[in-house]
Amino acid sequence: xxxxxxxxxGRLFRDFLDQVxxxxxxxxxxxxxxxxxxxxxxxxxxxxxVKGGYAAYDHANVHLALERWFSSEGRTHELxxxxxxxxxxxxxxxxxxxxxxRDRFILGAVDYAYxxxxxxxxxxxxxxxxxxxxxxxxxYAVLLxxxxxxxxxxxxxxxxxxxxxxxxxxxxxxxxxxxxxxxxFRGKILSFEGSDFDDGIGPFRFHSRPGLxxxxxxxxxxxxxxxxxxxxxxxxxxxVLRAAGQHLRRGLLLYGPPGTGKTHTVRYLLxxxxxxTAVVLAGPTIRFVGAACALARQLQPALVVLEDCDLVAEARxxxxxxxxxxFQVLNEMDGLGDDAxxxxxxxxxxxxxxxxALAQRPGxxxxxxxxxxxxxxxxxxLFGLYGGRLGLGEEDVERVVERTDGTTASFTxxxxxxxxxxxxxxxEKTAARDVEAALDELLSDRDxxxxxxxxxxGEEPDDEDEWEPEG
Length: 471
What we know:
Layout: H1 3-21, H2 23-29, H3 32-40, E1 49-55, H4 59-71, E2 75-83, H5 92-102, E3 106-108, E4 111-118, E5 121-135, E6 138-145, E7 155-161, H6 165-181, E8 189-194, E9 201-207, H7 223-236, H8 238-243, E10 250-255, H9 262-272, E11 277-282, H10 289-298, E12 302-307, E13 316-317, E14 323-324, H11 325-334, E15 342-348, H12 351-360, E16 367-370, H13 376-387, H14 394-403, H15 409-425, H16 432-442, H17 448-453
Parallel strand pairs: 8-11, 10-15, 10-16, 11-12, 12-15
Antiparallel strand pairs: 1-7, 2-3, 2-5, 4-5, 5-6, 6-7, 8-9, 13-14
Helix pairs in contact: 4-6, 13-14, 13-15, 15-16
């Protein structure tokens, strides 16, 4: 047998001795029951367990609240972990029973999960661990259990051993207060994602707040002012409105063809509301509007953005008697109350699909504003915004404006990008001929689908050109 094999055999044999021969001594030193009894001053199985439950997305909030509670003046804590099969899905009572009767669980390492708490920032949060804490003369043992996709555990749980049920309830009330006061979502922009394993909410995604100015928005005269007054103006004058008995909750619908700048306008409004918590739901994730409204109510002032609402205007929610999902959205809006400083911003490319639902639920949306195709002054401003660094002369710009009648802001952005690419392929600076070549290509028959994808109106194919199956 080679030296390396002998060394490996020796290591495995020592592990065997540690696990089998010396197991009794090790378990004695690492006994969960003895550790809890020493800390609590009583047999843990004789103390009632009080539970608290939280949404999976609140995992970081619960972790931070525990750290703050136990770290405040007059309190101390120690964090311990467990080893043993089944600890993740067993309740604390089951863990204590198994540890007492079968020595199934012993002290081990604490489990952690890295969770996003801001754009590009993660926090190591306890996903399974027991806090042994003190508050003056009182002793607590608190099990924090995070969600687990592996075991189908879809929430965050706290299980508390305390001197009395009343003390445990006071403790959980203190944790709830700290979650509200120091919520990591406050003032952030976030979106919901669906769970990979069920129909519930998956992780949150944090987004950086845009930095757009008024000059970055190209809309017809007066349109941006109306939009800003409805969303930003109410926020700025909230105290005056409240004193006059006026409600703060408001709903705004932005409608118009694809590519005209509805999402860009939303980004501008987010720039103008730096202290607002914003929850963005798009398409299928609009089904999480109930959770979004609950979060907005808790963290107001808040903005709930519902993009592409037309995608759910005819969707069916079978739990609601086959009502369109949009009705649920509107009902959630209505349930917030007039004094809630929450703004709802809906966008759609198909106002005709939304109108019947909105008419049946009046008052949820206070204002509808069209974001139309850009007119001549608008197209000129758009080309200046996106293509200003091309250095084209005034006559060249006017030719572009004339040829782009009926196009969108998205079309202009693609035109400029493609012009720069043409020039880069020649390894020269962008010139008027590159813009003309890009325009010729984008307006050609072979780019018909591209124009439709960029929101250009009047680009439906002729009936005679449609493909039909043979036979």
